[in-house]
Design brief:
By secondary structure, this protein is of the alpha/beta class. It folds into two domains: 162 residues, Rossmann fold; 105 residues, K homology (KH) domain (GMP Synthetase, Chain A, domain 3, 2-Layer Sandwich). The chain has eight helices and nine strands. The strands form two sheets. The protein has a six-stranded mixed sheet with strand order 2-3-1-4-5-6, sandwiched between helices. The chain is globular, with a radius of gyration of 20 Å. It starts with 8 loop residues before the first strand and ends with a helix.
């Protein structure tokens, strides 16, 4: 850990909120790199994802978290546990909501999680590009003792630079935890798994994305610098397998095609991607399967 002068600031800044409010989009925007997958569908993020931004005078350790919601299944409970775990060492917490309705039904679950922490919480109203001007109706008094309220658009970047400056001003003096060129602690295997999941989210419908667990079974460099990746997409029912494969294998080929484009950009090399679909009945209810898919 590199020591810094007293004017250097650093700290952990988790981003929490309900599913699909834009946490992953904000993380990618802040870093200027895509390290978290995004989708218009909720519950895209299943794990905590660290993103490190290093500036001459500060290092901010952002943490993207699974959406906080009522946990009704073992999979959801594990995601909620991951979100809560990210708050343990927080220096500042960003509670993200969305315009034009910041506090819909279900926000109480987030407040219940935040109630147990003693650190600074900023209310972050995202998606202001979807409302006229920046006017968003807020309850008075606010239902939680936020230090301040800020309005941004993670998609367009509006207000994000101001947010970054506010965060740095609130961070305590601290060391540089990671080298300057370090962006995330996620492995290439993890990133490959997430990219494949993202394409499943974008290309399939119904309940398919939430019943898919991706396992990267082989990841190696072969002759000529080609990266060879074999991954299995695990679903709970035979009917889901049929949808993922598609007529004549077309859907699986399309998932592979779009995933390969992103993987080649990420890895800077030609990628051969070998995808398989297998059925593991009720895997979302089994601890051993959740561990295999990085969810326990």
């Amino acid at each position: 850990m590199e020591k810094q002068g007293n004017d250097f600031r650093s700290g952990f800044v988790p981003i929490v909120g309900r599913p699909n409010v834009g946490k992953s989009t904000l993380l990618n925007r802040l870093l200027g790199e895509k390290i978290a997958i995004i989708s218009p569908k909720p519950q895209t993020t299943w794990n905590r994802i660290l993103g490190v931004k290093t500036l001459p005078h500060a290092q901010i350790l952002f943490v993207d978290t699974p959406g906080i919601h009522e946990a009704t299944s073992r999979l959801n409970r594990n995601m909620l546990k991951a979100a809560k775990g990210a708050l343990q060492d927080a220096d500042i917490v960003l509670h993200m909501v969305e315009a034009p309705d910041p506090f819909p039904r279900g926000e109480e679950v987030v407040w219940e999680v935040l109630k147990g922490i003693k650190t600074t919480v900023i209310l972050l109203i995202n998606k202001i590009d979807l409302v006229e001007g920046s006017d968003v109706l807020l309850e008075s008094p606010l239902p939680f003792p936020y230090l301040k309220v800020m309005r941004i658009s993670a998609l367009t970047g509006t207000g994000v630079n101001i947010l970054e400056r506010e965060i740095i001003a609130l961070l305590p003096p601290g060391p540089k935890y990671y080298p300057e060129d370090f962006i995330t602690d996620q492995t290439e295997r993890f990133m490959a798994r997430e990219i494949i999941r993202e394409k499943i989210f974008h290309l399939t419908h119904q309940e398919i994305p939430y019943s898919c667990g991706v396992v990267v079974e082989d990841f190696k460099e072969r002759d000529g610098g080609v990266i060879w990746i074999r991954a299995s997409i695990n679903v709970e029912r035979e009917s889901q397998k049929g949808i993922l494969i598609g007529k004549g294998g077309r859907m699986l080929k399309e998932i592979g095609r779009w995933a390969r484009i992103d993987l080649e950009q990420l890895l800077g090399a030609k990628v051969y991607l070998d995808l398989w679909v297998r059925v593991q009945k009720d895997w979302t209810k089994k601890d051993y399967a959740l561990r295999e898919f990085g969810l326990a």
